[in-house]
Structure formats: C-alpha cells, structure tokens
C-alpha cells in the first residue's frame, strides 16, 4: 500500500484549516509539513505555533520535514504536538545518530532527509536505527519544481543495502511527484509519496490523489 502525503506548502495558507480538511476528505494518508527557516533553504514557511494548531485539526498522521539549521530544537515540541514522522537533513547537525535516537526516544518515527547531491551511502551505517529515509527529488525550498530522475539510482542502492542488512524501513520521495513517475518509484521500492503542487494546483484534490494511486500497479 502506498501512502500519499500531500505537502501543505502548496495549500492556500489563508484557508489552511479548510485545505487540511479537504485533503483528508480526498484520501490523504499523511500530511507533510515543510518547515523552512530561510537559512538552510532560501524560503520561509511556518514553525511550531502553526504546527500545534494544525495538529489540533488534523486527523491524519503529521510528517514534519525540517529544513532548518537547528532541527534538534524542534524535536520535543513536535513530540508534544503529536507529530508522528520527523525528518531532518544530516548536514544541519553534528551527530546524526544521536539525533535519530532522540527522535525515537520521544516516540516519533525518525527519518533522515537527503538532498539530491547527498550520497545515499551516508545513511547506511545507521539504517537499523531509522524508520524512514526521505530522498529529495528536487532541491529543497520550493514546491512545483521538476522531478530529478537521479533519485532512481539512489533508491536502488538503498533498497539493495536494506535487503543486505534485512533492514525494515520506508522510503519517502519528496519533490516533483506526479502520475507519470509514481508507478516507477513504487516499483523501485518507495512507499511514501509527498505531493504538493500536483494536488493543490488542481481544484479536484480527490481526483488527483486517486490518479496517483491508480498509477501504481
Ligand atoms: C520542497 C519540499 C516539498 C515540496 C514538494 O522543499 O520539501 O515537500 O512541497 O512539492 P512538489 O510536489 O510541488 O514538488
Ligand atoms: Zn518536504
């Protein structure tokens, strides 16, 4: 079963509550939250006060993708808010393994997010400690960018290493996901799909989510 995680980055922020209800009704499995600080990425979105508010409204698990230079400051508040999945970029912390453990100790699912140019081998030593790996298929910062096929090679290497180690974790793809690539991505072993503009730029969210699901066989 594939999990579709709409990214509210492409939602109408003036109508956030309505938008969240709409994607849930449309069949979203997870709600993807792109937290950007204007430093790690050249864009600024929202932080903890908004996430706390979203958590009160949302009925689906929340997935916080931290594109910030101080992700460790978010872990405890995200756990308190009831967030389920948390990923951070390894170049933003000194001790990746320690931070992964902290996320899990707080009762959340831990993920490491890798930019397109980051080697996937970076997560190999800690595979057994991870619940998921988020592979960026665009450079982080903005919605609506074109999918980078280089991610296929990284999925393949990650899958091989998972098999070799018997590691059970999920692969999440983030950026440029559409009905044209989701089938191949799923075949390659991806189970969590972030989709922002593909869903929110349409006025029929349910149809878009359905179209993504139908393109996976
Ligand atoms: C980019 C974000 C993505 C983004 C995806 O930095 O991490 O989650 O919202 O948007 P689309 O699906 O439009 O590429
Ligand atoms: Zn994201």
State the strand order across the main sheet. 1-8-7-6-5-4-3-2
Series of secondary-structure elements, N-terminal to C-terminal: EHEHEHEHEEHEHEHH
**Into which percent range does the helicity of residues fall?**
25-40%
Overall structural class, as computed from helix and strand content, comes to alpha/beta
Low-confidence stretches: none
Describe the protein in words.
This protein has an eight-stranded parallel β-sheet with strand order 1-8-7-6-5-4-3-2. Helix 2 packs parallel to helix 3 (72-81). The model has no long low-confidence stretch (mean pLDDT 98). Helix 2 (48-57) links the parallel strand 2 and strand 3. It has helices at residues 16-25, 48-57, 72-81, 96-105, 151-165, 182-188, 197-200, 205-214; strands at 3-6, 31-36, 62-67, 85-88, 109-114, 132-136, 170-174, 192-195. Helices cover 35% and strands 18% of the residues. The protein is built from eight helices and eight strands. 41% of the residues are buried. The termini are close together. It is an alpha/beta fold and 217 residues long. Bound molecules: D-xylitol-5-phosphate (DX5) and zinc ion. D-xylitol-5-phosphate (DX5) is lined by residues 7, 9-10, 32, 34, 65, 138, 140-141, 143-145, 174-177, 194-198. The site of D-xylitol-5-phosphate has 21 residues, from strand 2, strand 8 and helix 7.
Secondary-structure blueprint:
Layout lengths: L2 E4 L9 H10 L5 E6 L11 H10 L4 E6 L4 H10 L3 E4 L7 H10 L3 E6 L17 E5 L14 H15 L4 E5 L7 H7 L3 E4 L1 H4 L4 H10 L3
Parallel strand pairs: 1-8, 2-3, 3-4, 4-5, 5-6, 6-7, 7-8
The structure holds D-xylitol-5-phosphate and zinc ion (ZN).
């Amino acid at each position: 079963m594939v999990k579709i995680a709409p990214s509210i980055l492409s939602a109408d922020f003036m109508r956030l509550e309505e938008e969240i209800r709409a994607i849930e009704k449309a069949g979203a499995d997870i709600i993807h939250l792109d937290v950007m600080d204007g430093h790690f990425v050249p864009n600024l979105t929202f932080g903890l006060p908004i996430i706390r508010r979203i958590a009160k409204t949302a009925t689906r698990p929340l997935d916080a993708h931290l594109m910030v230079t101080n992700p460790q400051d978010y872990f405890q508040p995200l756990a308190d808010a009831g967030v389920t999945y948390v990923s951070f970029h390894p170049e933003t912390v000194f001790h990746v393994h320690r931070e992964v453990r902290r996320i899990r100790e707080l009762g959340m699912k831990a993920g490491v997010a890798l930019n397109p140019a980051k080697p996937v081998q970076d997560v190999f030593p800690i595979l057994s400690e991870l619940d998921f790996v988020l592979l960026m298929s665009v450079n982080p910062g903005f919605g609506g960018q074109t999918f980078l096929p280089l991610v296929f090679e990284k999925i393949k290497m990650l899958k091989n290493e998972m098999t070799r180690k018997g590691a059970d974790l999920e692969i999440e793809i983030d950026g440029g996901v559409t009905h044209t690539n989701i089938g191949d991505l799923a075949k390659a072993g991806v189970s969590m799909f972030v989709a922002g503009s593909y869903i929110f730029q349409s006025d029929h969210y349910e149809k878009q989510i359905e179209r993504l699901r139908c393109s996976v066989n």
